[in-house]
Amino acid sequence: MWGVIDLKRVKTGIPGMDEILGGGIPERNVVLLSGGPGTGKSIFSQQFIYKGLEMGESGVYVTLEEHPLQVKKNMENFGWNVQEYESSGSFAIVDAFTAGIGSYAEKEKYVVKDPDDVRELVDVLRRAVSDTGAKRVVIDSVTTLYLTKPVAARNVVFQLKKVLAGLGCTSIFVSQVSVAERGFGGPGVEHGVDGIIRLDLDEVDGELRRSLIVWKMRGTAHSMKRHPFKITDKGIEIES
């Protein structure tokens, strides 16, 4: 175990991850999950939400880059069926993708009509968290909120962090970076979050291999090593 401080933690439920973090993510932390295409960011965040539901912790998933139906389908591919949790009111998807267009969107409870309007997103998100009693929140991806205006990145992250931490949520903000990019997605965003987990996909001896490293995690000691991981039909599994 890497943690040395006695504090309340949120178990990720991802095999190998909680050991790396000394028992889990410190409660109310906002974690930037950064990586390039194909690294497993959405799978990691969906696994975090679903495992929380299994442990009795309500969750909200904000989708900005995929249709809510596709998100559910992707989760079902790993055996993560959220239908019963959605029906019971312990899970909700905030749709910031369709802009309220289409027959499916008309039936949804939490729709952001203008995804570029952070104030509207915050209002809808706050309502979803309040209704579900969510302890876990994922925003996939936060990069979409400032893609056309990168100078606003840090401010957007701070706004969302202030609201979610205030509501008692432990959150993952998915951040897109290019394959060759060494940063974490957006100027200054690394200073606006409590933790950073970087996922990578590298070619080694002619083979693509996935790995992750925890760059920082406020409130706890953590492994400083890079850890290989694989994606199975049950989700992400991390090697120690």
Task: Describe it.
The protein is an alpha/beta fold. The chain has one domain (9-238): Rossmann fold, CATH 3.40.50. Helix content is 28%, strand content 26%. The protein has seven helices and eleven strands. It has helices spanning 17-20, 41-54, 68-76, 83-88, 103-107, 118-132, 153-166; strands spanning 9-10, 25-26, 30-35, 59-63, 91-95, 136-140, 170-176, 195-204, 207-217, 227-232, 235-238. The chain has a nine-stranded mixed β-sheet with strand order 5-4-6-7-3-8-9-10-11, sandwiched between helices. A two-stranded antiparallel ribbon has the order 1-2. Strand 10 and strand 11 (235-238) form a beta hairpin. The longest helix has 15 residues, at 118-132. The N and C termini lie close together (11 Å). 45% of the residues are buried. Residues 1-5 have low confidence and may be disordered.
Quick overview of this protein structure:
The chain has 240 residues and is α/β, with parallel strands linked by helices. It has 7 helices and 11 strands. The strands form 2 sheets. It has a 9-stranded mixed β-sheet with strand order 5-4-6-7-3-8-9-10-11, sandwiched between helices. Strands 1-2 form a two-stranded antiparallel ribbon.
Strand-helix topology:
Blueprint: E1 9-10, H1 17-20, E2 25-26, E3 30-35, H2 41-54, E4 59-63, H3 68-76, H4 83-88, E5 91-95, H5 103-107, H6 118-132, E6 136-140, H7 153-166, E7 170-176, E8 195-204, E9 207-217, E10 227-232, E11 235-238
